Amino acid sequence: MIKRSTDATDRAWALLGGDPALTAAVDTGGPGGALQARLPVREMARSTVAVCALAAAELSTARRGGGSLPAVRVDDGAVAAAFVSERHLRVDGRAAATFAPLSRFWRTADGWLRTHANYPHHRARLLAALGLPSSDTAGDEALAARVAGLLATREAAQVEEEVHAAGGLAVAVRTPHEWTVHPQGAAVAQRPLLSLERIAEAPVRKLDGGSGRLPAEGLRVLDLTRVLAGPVATRTLALLGADVLRVDSPSLPESRDTHADTGFGKRSAVLDLARSSDRATFESLLATADVVVTGYRPGALDRHGLSPMALAERRPGLVIGQLSAWGTYGPWGGRRGFDSLVQAACGIAATEAGPGGGPGVLPAQALDHGTGYLLAAAVLRAVTDQRTAGGTHLARLALAQTAAWLARDVGRDEGEGTGEREEYEPGPWLSEREGPLGLLRYALSPVAYEGGPRDWARSPGRWGADAPVWGGAAGFRGAAPVFGPFSANPGPGSVQVSRAGNRFTP
Q1: Nearest CA-CA partner of 319 in 263, 259, 396, 265
Q2: Which of 8, 280, 309, 483 has the fewest CB within 10 Å, making it most exposed?
Q3: What is the pLDDT of residues 245-293, one digit of tens each?
Q4: pTM (two decimals)
């Protein structure tokens, strides 16, 4: 019999400042064959969702005026489907694009290198660092062959620094020991999984609007994040009733598929903070925001007065979530990064090496997704505390810290290999709906508690197409969120019904 580990859930909840007695409300189950890896990915993923759902249930109880805590159910199947939501996404039957041809592992003279070039500006900087023109008209296969030939003669660590200097993204693939003795790895090892602290005094805030059935209803969230981890966090807050407005620069468009995957429940606007009119609009949004979540490279937003301390001074009582790849400290504190690069640098790729000895990957972008659910949990816990004790609260998370937690602190389920593992099929946790982007197939949220929502009230719209105003000011009401029977494990062969009434039958 498999006994599911709860140690990671208990520790993460403690770091969030939660009452340890509340974790007794969490029930886990589902198929045991999901997210298989050498590292305890399934257990880590389950724990991040568990604390997020528990934080939602806690806030829901507080907003009802007290009473018993709703039961929380975490199903491994639902978690596994959500942790690869970008792979399950279909837009009018088309699968989402994943990694670009130049985002991959490369052989070097002394080992391996991992690059990330999904965005055009990162691709151009990578090629510039390698002495190749970004306007090269060669096809992807021919260009990749040229890059491979160049890197085969170079040392990985040297290329890592040269690409970084050019503003691109590349890291040497390191073993766990090599990362431990690296200055950034050593700095990460001294940090906890996350931090959540009160950074300034401020009066208690009341959440206005709505029926109060959803824990985050009435919460205004300014979403200044990109790609995956941050948008997963704000997508989750939107599920729970928050008015989430994502704001991007018009000069940094998002991948359409990433936006489709993470845009559920939100609206999307573009503002150029270098323009006085756009800056004034942004300031009016900030003046009435309850939560600001940032996911840019540390320091990148400081020139706009958006550092945590500047935000605390300008908007007392704010809940601030700050997400980074490597942390805000150490020699890499100001560097860009993505899940795939963190896996490569910190020893995960070496740990998950394939039969041929080449670097491997986790079965999901688990650092991104896991950190996203932890960030949402931190915001919810801060909102709960702010309602009674006031204050301005800051949550800080980093993909590298999540990676260290996975490798060092997450325990395995007991009883693996006993022959009782159930086959995992994602169908029960997928749904379909029509929306502005077309017919979408998507993964449902794994965040589930008794009386909670099972689907988003709003389909993703087109990137940047919404007015930069809060939902009430725009006259947006959306549809009612979907509430269903309390079960995160509907079972094989069941049918999920979306808000729009479409059905996906596995």
Answers
A1: 396
A2: 280
A3: 999 999 987 899 999 999 999 999 999 999 999 999 999 999 999 999 9
A4: 0.93
Edge-first strand order for the sheet with 291-294 is 194-200, 392-398, 319-324, 291-294, 220-224, 243-248, 267-270
C-alpha distances in angstroms, 505 versus 242, 429, 431?
30, 10, 8
In this structure, are strands 496-497 and 503-504 parallel, antiparallel, or unpaired?
A: antiparallel
What radius of gyration, in Å, describes the C-alpha atoms of the chain?
A: 22
Instruction: Return the higher-pLDDT residue of 287 and 416.
Output: 287
CA distances from 83 to 203, 372, 469 (A): 37, 10, 31
Q: At what angle do helices 120-129 and 156-165 cross, to 10 degrees?
A: 120
User: Within 13 Å of residue 183, how many CA atoms lie on the same side as its CB?
Assistant: 5
Q: Could you tell me if 373 and 367 are in contact, meaning their C-beta atoms sit under 8 angstroms apart? A: no
List % helix, strand, coil for the chain (3-state, nearest 5). 35, 15, 45
- Model confidence pLDDT, tens digit, residues 301-354: 999 999 999 999 999 999 999 999 999 999 999 999 999 999 999 999 999 999
* Contact predicate 56/449, CB 8 Å: yes
Q: 166-183 as b/e, with b when 16 or more CB fall inside 10 Å?
A: bebbbbbbbeeebbbebe
